Known about the structure:
This protein is mostly helical. It has twelve helices and two strands.
Amino acid sequence: MSSTTAQAILNVVHHYIIYAFSIIFIAGLVGNICNIVIFISLKMFRKCPGAYYIIVESIFDLSFSIVGSALRASEEIFNLDSDRIRLLWLIDQYFSTNCNPLMRQLSTIKLAKYLTAMAILTSFFYMIPFTMFYDIKVTFGCLLTNINLVRYYSFFHLPILQGILPILLASTFSIMAYRNVRRIRRQQMSNTRRRLDQQLTAMILARMILFVVCLLPYTALCFYVFNMQSHNNQTLRSAIEVLILALAVAISYLNISVCHSTSYRDSFDLIHVY
């Protein structure tokens, strides 16, 4: 009876993945193309490091959307996702909106390019050991085969590097950037620059909330799966875990399928102006 139920759950997972990822693919394709077009077309964004990070992030997210489920395994193996880029533009937005001129000078396009390259290379080399010990043994996803690496992944990488640290950094710097923007009204600067900083910060706050909401379920479930040993005869439990994992992965993919700006109509009007 349990094996029949488990098979039925796996069939549901199969169809859910097909339809859910098809919708996410379309949403990600449209949303990220809009992001790239808007931030490349507007001249006032071209010299803004925060906009540069958003363009790079959108290119990564667009690649994930196009390749879809096949790149899901590559993302797990190489960890070349856009979270590192997202954290960079959260930090950059804090510096670019700071009242201190010396702090604002730390936000430059040149530094943004260096940091982006460093984030990609660091992620690649860091995940080489995981690539060597990954093995596809489950219906949905991959498993590590080295015991010591499993312990490191379970008790440090998942809860700290993939959970607490990015959420803490994203929340802290986005809140500080929001506080800086509230002080912008008292500064003497052009209306265009003030509007640019306010809009970028509003986007960042919205994406930070979505980032945390989408990351938490997936990280928590991965932590559970890695630390709970399922026996071979527990087919029903394994099927339920696969179903929940598929739901969590779909939620995490929503984070790359949303447009940044809530005022694209105004942005398209600005394209004709600038």
